[in-house]
Amino acid sequence: MSVDTTPWQKQVQMFFYDGPHDAESTRDAVIHYWNTFANEVVLISTCNRTEIYTESNCDNTEIIQWLNNNQSLTKDCKPYTYSYHEEKAIKHLFNVTSGVDSMVIGENEILGQVKEAFKIADQNKCLASSLKRLFEFSFSKGGCLPHLLLK
Question: Across residues 73-95, what is the average pLDDT?
Answer without folding.
Answer: 83
